[in-house]
Amino acid sequence: MINKLKPKSDFNRNIFTLMTGTAVAQAIPILASPLLTRLYTPEDFGIFGIFMSIVTIGAIFVTGRYDYAILLSKTKNETNHLISLSMYSSFLLSIITYILLFNYQGILTNYFNNLKIDIWIMLIPISILFTAYFQTFSAVLNRNKDYIKMSKVKVMISISVLLLTIIFAFIINRNLGQIYGYLFGHIFVSFYLFYFLYKNNYIYRIQISKIKYVFFKHIKFLKFSTPSDIFNSFSNIGFPLLISIAFNPIVTGLYYLSNKIIRLPLSLIFSSISGVYTQKAAELYNKKEYIELIKLTNNIQKRILIILLPFSILVSLISPFLFGFVFGEDWILAGEYVRYYIVFVFFNGLYSPISQIGNILNRQDFLLKFNFSLGFFMAFSIYLFSNIYSFKITLLITSIIGSIHFIYLNIYMNYKLRRLK
After folding, report:
1. 356, 364 Cβ separation under 8 angstroms
2. CB count in 10 Å sphere of residue 373
3. Which of 18, 99, 206, 281 is such that its CA lies 20 to 30 A from the CA of 295?
4. pTM of the full predicted structure?
């Protein structure tokens, strides 16, 4: 009976495998959220959101986005040297980040005084390092089509971070509980993945000349994808950092939790489909099977639209009640915020599963311009309108600006795909 429920094609079977693991991994923090919102205050969530913004953007920078190149590598030897390049780059730049933060800690502490940044600022470099390692090792599993292991790792990181977050809430400063939970969870899983890859001969003896070769062969990822993704992160993952500068940590925390809860069920679908899509799309592109690539992309987006539209409408109707009922009265406002940015979640989500098509088509230069425009205009709108309007109206304006960008991006990439025929 179970076998009859499993998808027959390799593509759908891989999505099913990843989605199953991701579903469990995403369900864990969702189910634990009512507990976490009673252990941590909105301000604590705001501080953690700002920390995560910095760490996520930092991880993009230190890898030079060579972890993306791993997915497109054609041989195991090339993959090995890309792993080494990403790891060495992450280590070196994380050390430099530590030195810079150590020397300029006072300036940053004064600038973000209301965020108590002095308590956790020196945890940023090591968090960046192990986030980068985790991303690199996960890319290897994806490239190797080891979706069962990827699913297990997703569950492992979710359980590790959650348990440590709860434990640290009782034994250290509450402001640091979520940060330490995230950090030590990623350290644990990164060491596990390193051992697994080493045992399976994905990390072995390297040649400096080969590292130089893959560095220049895939340098577009450093030149275009890295700054492009950093700008993009400011409009997505880095949004709490922008909010904290214009408003306060409590507003930041309310937004951070609402955005996290709303996007978790969507990321269950998007990350699973995106991981399998990227591998399959790169394969079709390399084989010059462009018609099949176009059909695959259109089919994916039709599926996402069918899911996203009713989800967005339902969430906008019930989110205030849902947040108040599940998380407590202090979080009703977080549910109200959802109504002001759900349109951005919709258009961003429509493009998200095929987001690697720009890299596959070697249009990193366009993505850089797009993400610069997206990050600049969303950041500028917060700076400009936060002095005029409430946070809700400011959030709505930035959401509309972001939506327009993703509508244009989607039209442009589909046009480029059709030009391949």
Report:
1. no
2. 16
3. 18
4. 0.78
d(CA 142, CA 75): 14
In angstroms, the CA 211 to CA 220 distance is 15
Q: Helices (DSSP H) in 40-75: which residue ranges?
A: 42-63, 66-72
d(CA 334, CA 48): 16
pLDDT of residue 6: 47
Extract the tokens encoding 190. 């990164």
Tell me what pLDDT residue 75 has.
Answer: 85
List pLDDT tens digits, range 364-398. 888 889 988 998 898 889 889 988 889 999 999 99
Q: Cβ neighbours of residue 347 under 8 Å, at least 6 residues apart? A: 402, 403, 406, 407, 410
Residue type, 21: G
Residue 297 CB neighbour total at 10 angstroms: 19
- Token pair belonging to 365: 């230069």
Q: Residues 367, 228: contact at Cβ < 8 Å?
A: yes
Query: Is the pLDDT assigned to residue 232 strictly greater than 50?
Result: yes
pLDDT of residue 125: 95
Distance of CA 280 to the CA centre of its chain: 21
Record the tokens describing residue 362, joined without a space. 């070697």
pLDDT tens figures, 397-406: 999 999 999 9
pLDDT of 41 > 60? The answer is yes
CA nearest neighbour of 129 among 224, 201, 207, 59: 59
Q: For CA atoms 53, 56, 61, 62, give the dihedral sign.
A: positive
SS3 216: helix
Instruction: State pLDDT tens for residues 88-128.
Output: 999 999 999 999 888 877 777 666 655 667 778 889 999 99
DSSP string for residues in 68-131: HHHHH--SHHHHHHHHHHHHHHHHHHHHHHHHHHHHHHHHHHHHTGGGTGGGTGGGHHHHHHHH
